[in-house]
Amino acid sequence: MARLGTSVEEPVRQRLLSAATRLFAEKGFESTSVQEIVAAAGVTKGAMYHYFDSKDDLLQEIYGRVLRMQMDRLQRFADGEGTVAERLHAAAADVINTTVDNLDDSKIFFRSNHQLAPDTRKIVRAERRRYHERFRDLVIEGQQEGVFRDDVPAEMVVDFFFGSVHHLGTWYHPDGPLTGGEVGRYFADLLLRSLTPAS
Amino acid sequence: MARLGTSVEEPVRQRLLSAATRLFAEKGFESTSVQEIVAAAGVTKGAMYHYFDSKDDLLQEIYGRVLRMQMDRLQRFADGEGTVAERLHAAAADVINTTVDNLDDSKIFFRSNHQLAPDTRKIVRAERRRYHERFRDLVIEGQQEGVFRDDVPAEMVVDFFFGSVHHLGTWYHPDGPLTGGEVGRYFADLLLRSLTPAS
DNA sequence: TCGTCTTGACCGACCAGTCGGTATGCTGGT
DNA sequence: ACCAGCATACCGACTGGTCGGTCAAGACGA
C-alpha cells in the first residue's frame, strides 16, 4: 500500500509526528495530552500506541530528527570550500536558517530537554557535544591561522553564538518583517566581527 | 511580622517561594506537583493555599521578582557614568552576572513563558519589551555617536546578545571552572567587539 | 473570644497507558 | 480458485493513579 505518488494522504505515523511536533511547540510537552495529539492527527489512541511505545517515544523521535539534520548540515558547511572565515560564516548563517525554517522542532529541542528519559538525555547531550565541538574546531582553526582573535576561548564563542540560535524560537515569527536569511546574515556577521582581530 | 533581622527562620511564604523556585528550575513547572513544593517547604497544602491563590500564582510571583530585579539593575548601569561603550559593557557584564547568580530564577524565566496565564503573559511581555528597548537605546546611542557600527539594526544586536544570556541556564554550572564574572567579561567583550566599526 | 494560620482528609477532573476485540489482506498449501 | 492461518493496523472503553484545589475544623497568640 501507499505506493509512491499514488497516496495523497500522509501515513498515520507521519501524521502523528507532525501533530505532536506542532502541539509540543505550541503548548509544551507536559501540557499536551495524548488525547489531543491523536485528535489532531485524526486517529485514535490505539493507533498511536500501535506506532509508538509511549508519549516520550514521540519526543525522542523528534529529537533524533533534529539532531540528525543539524549535524548533516554543519558537516556540509564546515568541510566545504573556502577560507575558514567563509566556512564559519556560511555554517553560522545556515544554522539560523535551518532553525527558522523548522521553528517548531527548534522550540521543542531547546525547551524539552528535561522531559527526556535519562538514557535518551545522555545520548542527546553527547550528540550535541559533538556538534558544538565541530563548530568550535572551526573557531580554533581560525585562531591558529591568526585570522580570528584568540583572547576569548573558542568554547565561549560557541556558547555565545548558540545562545542566539537557541533564543530564536522565543522571538522570531515567520510572518514578521524579517526572513530567516536576513537574520542568518546579520547574526553571522555579528559572530564574524566579534572574532576580527584588532588591526 | 518578619521584622528585619529578628527572625532566623524564613517565614512560610518565603520558604514556599524558595522551594517552588528550586523545583521549577530543576524539573520544570508542569512536572512539579504542589505536593512536592509544600513537602520541600515543610508545610501542608492548606498553608500554601492560604498564601497563594494557585500554583500559577507562585510562578507569577517569581516572574515579578525577576522582572523587577533585571530592570533595576539595567537602569543603574545604563544611566550611570562613562562613555556609551563603557556603560553598555558594564550593563552587559552585569546581566550575565545577575543571571548566573540567580540561575534558578533565570531557568524558570526563560523556559516557562507558555505556562503563564494569558493576562500575565501579556504583562510580562510588555515589561520585557521595555527592558529590551532600554538596552537597545544604548546601542542606538553608540551608533549615533559613531562609536558603534550601524549596518546591523540595534534590535538585532539586542536579540543576538540576549540569546546568549537566555542560554546560560542551559550550560552554565556554578561549580564549573568559570565564574559568573569571567563569563560576563568574555560575553561583554564579544558584544562590544561585534559593534566595533571597521577602521 | 476573635482573627490568623495551619491542618489533612477529601473532591472531581484528567492523565498515560492497557486490553480485548475487529477488519483487512497477504501467503502458501491444495 | 480457494481457504486456513497469520500478521498488521486500528478501535475505544476502561483502569489505576495523580493532579490542583477545597473545606471544615483545630491551634494559638492577642
From TrEMBL, chains A, B:
InterPro entries: DNA-bd_HTH_TetR-type_CS, Homeodomain-like_sf, HTH-type_TetR-like_transc_reg, HTH_TetR, KstR2_TetR_C, Tet_transcr_reg_TetR-rel_C_sf
GO molecular function, one term: transcription cis-regulatory region binding
GO BP annotations listed: negative regulation of DNA-templated transcription
Keyword DNA-binding among UniProt keywords: yes
UniProtKB keywords: DNA-binding, Repressor, Transcription, Transcription regulation
Keyword DNA-binding: yes
Record-annotated DNA-binding residue ranges: 33-52
Start and end residues of each HTH tetR-type domain: 10-70
Stored Pfam families: TetR_C_24, TetR_N
Protein name: TetR/AcrR family transcriptional regulator
